[in-house]
Design a protein that fits this description.
The protein has one domain. The protein has 5 helices and 7 strands. About 5% of the residues have low confidence. It has about 130 residues and is an alpha+beta fold. Strands 2-5-1-6-7 form a 5-stranded mixed β-sheet. Strands 3-4 form a two-stranded antiparallel ribbon. The longest helix is centred in the middle third of the chain and has 14 residues. α4 links the parallel β6 and β7.
Amino acid sequence: MSCILRAGGREFEPAAFLAESSFEQASVHAPGERFTAGVVTAAARGFSVTVSDAEIDDLDGQIAEAIEFLDRHEDELRRLGRYEGVEVVEIDFGIEWRDVATQTDWFPPELLWRAGALDIGLRISHFLSPQRES
């Protein structure tokens, strides 16, 4: 799971939200638990759900699937953004750290517009490739 939606807040009750949600296979997180890739919620409760299964070396695939996710779940994402206790909603793109002098990546206006219209932030998490870890 290289691209996820994460939502949370100190007063958020993710289990109550998810009980009436169309999101499938969401992972619920209590304060102090890891969301993903070392991100720990000190005081927040939340959940994460897969947006894209594209690999970490396929940002274009992640972006295409994220746009589809935003289209498919637009009403549910609006409900989430207004839900009591929600402080942050973001999509986290996990991408491979490339062995280059300067790493640049680009988000198309369509993704930025759709996410912004739903008050969803975008995050990029860089991961070492398996070849660089060894």
